[in-house]
Amino acid sequence: MSDDVIVDVHCVKHVYAGGGHVDLCGQEFIVKRGQRVAVLGPNGSGKSTLLKHILGILRPTEGQVTVFGEDPARRYQDIRMRIGAMMQNVDEQLLGPTVFDDVAFAPLNFGLSREETFRRVETILRALKIAHLRDRLPHYLSGGEKKKVALAGALVFSPELLVMDEPMEGIDHTSRLEIAAFLQTLHQETGMTMISTLHDMEQVSRLADVGYVMRHGGSLELYGTITELFYEHDLSQYNLAPPTVVQISKQLQQHGYPLAHTLDTAAFTRQILALLPPK
Questions:
Q1: Which of 112, 138, 226, 255 could form a disulfide with 94 if both were Cys (CB 3.0 to 4.6 A apart)?
Q2: Which residues of 154-188 are buried (b: 16+ CB within 10 A; e: fewer)?
Q3: HSE-up (13 A, CA, CB side) for residue 16
Q4: What is the per-residue burial (b if ≥16 Cβ within 10 Å, else e) of 227-250?
Q5: pLDDT tens per residue across span 234-256
Q6: What is d(CA 146, CA 131) in angstroms, rounded to the nearest whole number?
Q7: CB-based burial of residue 101 (10 Å sphere; 0-12 exposed, 13-18 middle, 19+ buried)?
Q8: Share of the chain above pLDDT 70, in %
Q9: Which pLDDT does position 110 carry in this prediction?
């Protein structure tokens, strides 16, 4: 496996205790160093199951998963500090009696000194602009604040890979913009590899550059840049509605307007203004 390949999921089948199963086959799921990858698909397609295999929470019945060259289900402790994770239900992830204690929990349990742990916790709380919440009880915070605390816990080790399951779910518009902006800046500054499952198509281009589209049952059917996926494929068959800017752009293109493919609303607006007669 190339050193550039961080995650490789090859035709994994998972059978649940109740008898249900997910077949993560079709496209081979490969994530290279520095990529921001979105996993898209309808509810029940197996997006969360895929992430749980990457994190070693689940062990495949068939197939192979490697993360940093290791089997995460068997050797997760060897790669634990290289991976940060924010799960879909953050309430299950928040363990400490205060925000500070929660973010400090993993470093202290993995043997970091109290001095180094406190330095790291203060740094990430300030970066996420939640230092003022350090003494608050996590479970009494707003949805957006809880997501930021969980994200702080995921990033306290400065991991090489960040895995996020529906990071924008259940939070208000302002919190979505703040978290997206933080993650964009983090990627620009560190080149951190990121994998996100998402169902809000309006947010995809803010969090990912490339993506996989899954069909119900786990089949990985499409791969490409986010722009290619939205403009060159009919995602309605996967129960996915493209962002508003794509829907409007496609309609105008059908009427003969020469618009370049873009997911950026400002760039789209500039194209429209260029087509209009001067005031």
A1: 138
A2: bbbbebbbbbbbbbbbebeeebbebbbebbeebbe
A3: 10
A4: bebbbebebeebebebbebbeebe
A5: 999 999 999 999 999 999 999 99
A6: 13
A7: middle
A8: 99
A9: 87
Residue 86 — φ and ψ, nearest 5°? -125, 115
Instruction: Assess contact for 138 and 100: CB atoms under 8 A.
Output: no
Kindly report whether the global pTM for this prediction surpasses the value 0.70. yes
pLDDT at residue 171 above 60?
yes
Q: How far apart are CA 24 and CA 219, in angstroms?
A: 5
Residue with tokens 């919440």: 133
Question: Alpha carbon of 193 to those of 83, 116, 239: distances in Å?
Answer: 10, 24, 27
| Pair 224, 27: CB distance under 8 Å | no
Structural tokens at position 178: 């703040």
Q: The domain 5-235 belongs to what CATH superfamily?
A: P-loop containing nucleotide triphosphate hydrolases (3.40.50.300)
Q: Which residue has the higher pLDDT, 278 or 51?
A: 51
In the chain, where the domains are located: 5-235, 243-279
Q: Stretch 212-220: mean pLDDT, rounded?
A: 90
CA distances from 262 to 160, 184, 202, 212, 231 (A): 29, 18, 13, 19, 9
Distance between CA 279 and CA 121 in Å, rounded? 54
Report the alpha-carbon distance of residue 237 to residue 16 in Å, rounded. 26
**124-134: pLDDT as tens digits:** 999 999 999 99
Burial class (CB in 10 A: 0-12, 13-18, 19+), 198: buried
